[in-house]
Design brief:
By secondary structure, the protein is mostly helical. It folds into three domains: 59 residues, no CATH class; 63 residues; 91 residues, no CATH class. Helices cover 77% and strands 0% of the residues. The chain contains nine helices and no strands. The radius of gyration is 60 Å and the shape is rod-shaped.
């Protein structure tokens, strides 16, 4: 890279200073000095010259030493400065990594917290909607609250934005929950069966038998553990009044005009 004008001027000034210093200490060896020494044995001029030469050489060595010292010091300072810069950089990088690690940990804790909140909200929602009974407004209100809570919790999930529709549930409930609906159906069936079981034999009509069998199918489907009990009760009932009357009329017809057979038929069907 070419030197600037200022650098060139500084170099010229340095050279001029060195020349001036050299001229101050170094003087030419004149014949006068040697003549004085040869003729008179006087070394004054020669010694003075030598002394100045020695001083100049000493000064130059001192300057070289000082320059070397300065160069060494500058090199040391530059190395220290570079080391300090590297240390500062390393510390900055470490602080940056620590900050990123702290941020990542905070984000992970927040994510885990949101996932847990969503799981709890989902469990509460599942429980609430399975208890919805249109005849009990408090169950509808509980389900609505659970749905609102779940929707809020799901909005904090990291993948909510990808498919918000899949993570949003309705807050309106207009019919019984399936378990409640089944329970009501079973209770209605039992309310049909129990009175028929308790009724006297002469009320066991074909209409009651049909209603009984229809209710029994519901028990078979939803409460099979009660099926045997009601099957036994049906067997105890025996024939319906309609079936018994038809059998009685058939036996009477078969008896013809035989008084003995007619009486036997009456006894058989409890008509005597």
């Amino acid at each position: 890279m070419p030197r600037s004008v200022a650098e060139i001027q500084a170099e010229i000034a340095k050279v001029k200073q060195e020349i001036a210093t050299r001229d101050m200490y170094r003087q030419p060896r004149t014949q006068v000095g040697w003549a004085s020494y040869v003729g008179n044995g006087d070394r004054g001029l020669l010694d003075a010259y030598q002394n100045r030469e020695d001083q100049y050489n000493k000064m130059m060595k001192q300057q070289q030493f000082q320059a070397a010292e300065r160069a060494l010091q500058q090199k040391f300072q530059a190395a220290e400065a570079e080391k300090n810069r590297q240390n500062a950089y390393d510390i900055a990088q470490l602080n940056k990594e620590c900050a990123l690690d702290d941020k990542r940990k905070v984000e992970e804790r927040e994510r885990d917290k949101n996932l847990l909140a969503a799981e709890i909200a989902q469990a509460e929602y599942d429980d609430a909607i399975n208890k919805v009974d249109i005849d009990k407004p408090e169950t509808v209100l509980a389900a609505r609250k659970a749905a609102i809570k779940l929707n809020y919790a799901n909005r904090n999930l990291p993948y909510y934005a990808d498919d918000p529709q899949s993570f949003t549930v309705s807050t309106e409930f207009t019919e019984d929950a399936e378990p409640v609906k089944i329970n009501k159906t079973v209770n209605n069936a039992i309310q049909v069966l129990d009175p028929i079981v308790a009724a006297p034999k002469n009320q066991w009509t074909k209409e009651q038998k049909a209603a009984y069998n229809e209710a029994l199918e519901i028990i078979k489907k939803y409460r099979p553990e009660l099926l045997t009990k009601y099957q036994i009760e049906a067997k105890k009932k025996g024939k319906t009044t309609d079936e018994d009357e038809a059998a009685y009329q058939a036996d009477l017809k078969a008896a013809g005009n035989s008084a003995a057979k007619i009486n036997l038929a009456k006894k058989k069907h409890g008509r005597i």
